[in-house]
Amino acid sequence: MHLSHKNFTVFSIFSWYIRYILKKEFSRHHFDELQINDQEAILLLANRFSWWDGFLMFQLNRLVFKKEFHVLVTEEDYKAHRFLKYMGAFAAENKGKDVLETLIHAGQLLNDPNNLVLLFPQGKLYPAYVSSIIFEKGVMQVINASNKAFQIVFAANVISYSARKPFVQTHLKVWDAEEYISLQLLKSEYNKHYTQAVKHQNSVLV
What we know:
The protein has one domain (8-205): Glycerol-3-phosphate (1)-acyltransferase (3-Layer(aba) Sandwich). Helix content is 39%, strand content 20%. It is built from 6 helices and 7 strands. The chain has a 7-stranded mixed sheet, with helices on both faces.
């Protein structure tokens, strides 16, 4: 398993740099205000559509959730962008047993109320606008590896190019999970939120 290696100095530098590049590249990043329970960890589920997704969610955590940031990334991204490990990124080292151990690690992180774990359920990059968000089964392995005493937050990122610089809207929702969570239920509820987010963005642009 490729673990995160947080370093205060490196973290501070990149935290500043992420704020800088987001302001430079985007006209605005708007997000919903949420009421969250500070005494519980957060599992943040977001769609994956661009290079910027992790940075946007990192900034969102800094401004809204204020938790210790952790994100599960692919081994390719972990190796290609070494600085990610200083920002809380971790990854499976290979296929098979190590993947399962990595998912268990992600679930155990959720047992600490100070943590936020970001997952991209799709598992890989997809176009910005898709009809629905695919959920890989690893999401449920993460949930089942935890004590299930955390909050699930849906983040649907929608981008528009109505000006020279794109505008990003992050639609947030705290999902009150039912006692029994299945992959199909989680996927269905997230996609309801995602569909509403896209419709809202389209109505704003009309």
